[in-house]
Design goal:
The structure holds two protein chains of two kinds. Chain A is built from 13 helices and eleven strands. Chain A has a six-stranded mixed sheet with strand order 7-8-9-3-10-11, with helices on both faces. In chain A, strands 1, 2, 4, 5 and 6 form a five-stranded antiparallel sheet that branches. In chain A, helix 4 packs across helix 5 and helix 5 crosses helix 7. Chain A is globular and about 65 Å long. By secondary structure, chain B is of the alpha/beta class. Chain B has one domain: Rossmann fold. Helices cover 28% and strands 21% of the residues of chain B. Chain B has nine helices and twelve strands. In chain B, helix 3 packs across helix 4, helix 3 packs parallel to helix 5 and helix 5 runs parallel beside helix 6. Chain B is globular. The chains are: A alpha/beta, B alpha/beta. The complex binds adenosine-5'-triphosphate (ATP) (2 copies) and magnesium ion (2 copies).
């Protein structure tokens, strides 16, 4: 049994224009010690699918799934009390916007302490030591001084590291990291990624990494899911994905990498924009932007084939 | 290089005084120390370095949002003499425009795209009629690859990449010669990043714009920069043509920075040069070379004095005593 198993996850938002399907038919399974990356266009439902898993979406969201289990426990059936115990403890998340996820009214130390008190317990002194230790682990200079700082006194990169410290504070078995290193420069990014991989190797923590940095994906992930407009369009082992993308969207995404463009005067781009709520095309959602699209693609929605391990959502996989 | 430099910067320095405790004497944060360079029309200078190393401070000094504590700044042949808290001369301010990192926070949510684009014209070109202003805004909308129907929409109706286009359009309304771009693509996804980089290249060709491009994404910098300044702890530690610096990084920090950059190729997972320790605190700078405490080449000598930026060849300068310098 995998640590996290999700099948047929749908998330719809109630909006003034009716229901907006932000995630459709998402499937995912992560084993202990596995590193899974989720990549895809901005707005493709990466964050929303993970927030749904954690039960953290606002009331305007309608969530349904055929299966949603953490370590065999059905996440759909949890009472809010049971959920509070798991979320933030065994299953924790680094949120995409570090600035707005820290509480501006409390010091960094107080916020970490509160986490530790809820999930791990221990004496005040032990908790303080653990907090200092965590801040040092994520590379905050001078943890003794910073522990008393309020969020507004920290730079963007520092708040992000505090969020990371909080997320790993209770030794999670599953860590969902949503763009954990965007505000960080590469040397600190390397340090944070090393730390996360160390936890994964030493404690068997599973890691779901959401990122648009394909370099980070290449260097850390084992499996990769590619999303487009709320749908998972393919899932492959990392080397295979970079070598032989199966979905035209993945191919286009990878060819936009500056290092792949070589001396070409222009970087290849994907023409057009992701469909919004009001202009969803018929047939394949990617067809208006796809260079291989045919009449068939414009009419008929593709389904993943049962014998395709990558579950490519395309009539003509590459 | 042809023509005159649009920016001539000599030893630009910016210090901040901050109060650490009540009653104590204010501490000094040396955010930027002695940055010098020339920037020519049609060229791109990239500034790279660790978080907090002074990149945005340099951007604020170049765009005259803040005066340098010392050093000289010449823009378009005109010496900038700025007093703390005083606005810069209008004609110079027009020449240099800045684009901020966050495409979500930098646009006014209550203004339509055209209203935002017309605003700088209203302030700086009072001779234009309302009709002319609107036309200029519409032309620019097209120029940056947006569609006419976008003109009367509000920022929240756009994607990150489109918002960044709007920010660029607004910056270009007064025909500046120089654009300072502070992490312009780091919040965007790959295909949108590619669109923006292509757009910047087109605009540079068309208008001969000079760019100061701040970024920590070295694959992007490698693609677009003509020259590079690598900064550490407020000071340039290596400068030179991008082609040189990328093929042969000389300063140990540059080497560490390059090796920490993840490569988008899973068959080439590599060992990184690990940086030990943490970035120094600006409130208690280490003695000697600021990079010494984390440097894999550091020796006793390194803590004796802060190494100056010296030429290793006619184009490349490095601040490290362990790098062989050109014979004088
Ligand atoms: N509370 C909400 N109400 C309505 N729509 C929402 C809400 N939250 C998210 N959405 C929409 O759901 C879609 C998926 O959003 P999500 O944040 O998951 O994208 P993402 O893939 O994480 O993108 P990014 O890379 O930009 O973070 C988007 O179109 C977004 O506008
Ligand atoms: N107004 C200010 N008052 C005091 N210190 C400041 C001020 N602005 C910047 N600093 C300090 O100056 C140093 C350089 O900051 P700067 O914002 O230039 O860094 P940066 O290189 O742009 O970093 P990042 O990559 O994180 O954006 C930092 O130590 C910062 O804390
Ligand atoms: Mg997201
Ligand atoms: Mg900055």
């Amino acid at each position: 049994m995998a640590l996290l198993e999700i099948e047929g996850l749908d998330v719809r938002f109630r909006t003034t224009n009716g229901l907006f399907p932000a995630v459709e038919d998402a499937n995912l399974s992560v084993d202990k010690g596995e590193v899974l990356a989720i990549v895809g266009e901005s707005g493709s439902g990466k964050s929303v699918s993970m927030l749904a898993t954690m039960g953290l979406l606002p009331w305007t969201a309608e969530v349904s799934a055929d299966k949603m289990a953490f370590d065999g426990q059905d996440l759909r059936q949890l009472t809010s009390r049971q959920r509070r115990k798991i979320v933030g403890g065994e299953m924790s998340m680094i949120f995409q916007e570090p600035m707005s996820s820290l509480n501006p009214c409390f010091t960094v130390g107080t916020q970490i302490d509160e986490m530790l008190r809820q999930h791990l317990g221990g004496s005040r002194k032990e908790r303080k030591e653990r907090a200092l230790d965590l801040l040092a682990q994520v590379g905050i200079p001078d943890p003794k001084k910073r522990i008393g700082a309020y969020p507004h006194q920290l730079s963007g990169g520092m708040s992000q590291r505090v969020m990371i410290a909080m997320a790993i504070s209770c030794n999670p078995r599953l860590l969902i990291a949503d763009e954990p290193t965007t505000a960080l420069d590469v040397t600190i990014q390397a340090q944070i990624l090393d730390l996360l991989l160390e936890l994964q190797q030493d404690t068997g923590m599973a890691l779901i990494l959401i990122t648009h940095d394909m370099g980070v994906v290449a260097e850390t992930a084992q499996q990769v899911i590619v999303q487009y407009a709320g749908r998972q369009v393919e899932r492959q082992e990392v080397k295979a994905l970079f070598a032989h993308p199966r979905h035209p969207y993945t191919e286009a995404l990878l060819s936009a990498l500056p290092e792949r463009a070589g001396d070409q005067a222009r970087l290849p781009t994907i023409p057009g924009v992701v469909p919004g709520q009001l202009n969803r095309p018929s047939g394949c959602l990617f067809n208006p932007r796809c260079r291989y699209a045919t009449e068939h693609c414009r009419q008929v929605e593709p389904k993943a084939l049962a014998d395709d391990p990558a579950r490519t959502l395309c009539h003509y996989p590459l | 290089m042809t023509g005159d430099a649009v920016i001539h910067a000599v030893n630009l320095t910016r210090h901040y005084r901050i109060k650490t405790r009540p009653l104590a004497a204010p501490a000094i944060v040396k955010a930027l120390n002695e940055a010098s360079f020339d920037l020519y029309p049609g060229q791109t200078l990239a500034v790279v370095g660790e978080s907090g190393c002074g990149k945005s401070t340099l951007a604020r000094v170049l765009t005259m949002i803040e005066p340098p504590t010392s050093g000289q700044l010449t823009i378009n042949g005109q010496r900038v003499e700025l007093k703390e808290g005083e606005p810069p001369p209008k004609d110079l301010r027009r020449e240099v425009q800045i684009i901020f990192q966050n495409p979500y926070g930098s646009l006014n949510p209550r203004k339509t795209v055209t209203a935002m684009l017309e605003e700088p014209l209203k302030l700086n070109r009072p001779e234009l009629s309302a009709e002319q202003r609107r036309q200029a805004a519409l032309d620019m909308i097209e120029r940056v690859g947006l569609r006419p129907e976008h003109a009367d929409r509000y920022p929240h109706m756009f994607s990150g990449g489109q918002r960044q286009r709007i920010a660029i359009a607004r910056a270009l309304m007064l025909n500046p010669k120089i654009l300072v771009l502070d992490e312009p693509v780091s919040a965007l996804d790959l295909s949108i990043q590619a669109q923006i980089l292509n757009l910047l290249a087109d605009l540079q060709d068309e208008f001969g714009l000079a760019y100061v491009f701040i970024s920590h994404d070295l694959s992007v910098v490698r693609r677009i920069a003509d020259d590079v300044i690598v900064m550490y702890f407020g000071q340039p530690v290596e400068t030179g043509p991008a082609s040189e610096v990328f093929t042969q990084p000389r300063h140990p920090y540059t080497q560490a920075l390059f090796s920490a950059t993840p490569v988008a190729d899973p068959t080439r997972r590599k060992e990184r040069v690990r940086l030990k320790g943490e970035p120094p605190s600006p409130l208690s700078p280490p003695p000697g070379c600021p990079f010494a405490p984390r440097c894999f080449k550091a020796t006793e000598e390194c803590i004796q004095g802060d190494p100056p930026l010296e030429s290793v060849n006619p184009q490349v300068k490095v601040a490290c005593i362990h790098v062989e310098k050109a014979a004088v």
